[in-house]
Write a structure and sequence with these properties.
Layout (H helix, E strand, L loop, with lengths): L1 E5 L3 H8 L6 E3 L2 H7 L3 H11 L4 E4 L5 H12 L5 E6 L2 H12 L3 E7 L2 H9 L4 E4 L1 H6 L4 H14 L6 E4 L5 H10 L3 E4 L1 H6 L4 H17 L5
Parallel strand pairs: 1-2, 1-8, 2-3, 3-4, 4-5, 5-6, 6-7, 7-8
The chain binds erythose-4-phosphate.
Erythose-4-phosphate binds next to α7.
Length: 218
Amino acid sequence: MKFFVDTADVGEIKELAESGLIDGVTTNPSLVAKSGRDFKTIITEICALTDGPVSAEVAALDADGMITEGRALAEIAENVAVKVPLTWEGLRACKTLTDGGTMVNVTLCFSANQALMAAKAGATFVSPFIGRLDDMGLDGMELIEEIRTIYDNYLDLNTEILAASIRTVGHVKQSALAGADVATVPPGVIKALVKHPLTDKGLEAFMADWKKTGQKIV
Ligand code: E4P
């Protein structure tokens, strides 16, 4: 399973990229607004920090506008994945951009039929938003399971399932169990994945006992 980091904070991405555990990055207009920085500068900096796909979202709502913006974003670096919304216009743009060799992440996916259409449009990634479905009292994980089943039914559908809107460590585990190809995870949740109180307790006891031996390894 690949891990993308879901942020437009270049400092956080740098720190995580240095661990070698991150396979790509996703941004969205809200994350860019939160950073308060210039969008293309952020994408340029992120693309220099990772070889993996870096999602950069278009702002146009019509297919022609999305294609123009998508091509401009794709010129920033070869690892840019143009992000388009899951609308009819977005799918038209997706088809043109992927036919031209550009990676496309189709975002704001909330149903299995939408994911089927994204795959038909040749999407590189489809992003089902788990947390936002959970927020409505629905089961976001059920959507990942449905998409996995549908994509596995048809060998010609090569779109990767990118579990998005992940809010908890439980979401990451459930996405992995459901067979998502990628999870895009906020930095804080990525760090929380390695935490367990029994690990901390066990390490403390081992270190106390090691001290008693008076030995050194190097
Ligand atoms: C995915 O690409 C989105 O940037 C992100 O996961 C949205 O998460 P949110 O629903 O927590 O805003």
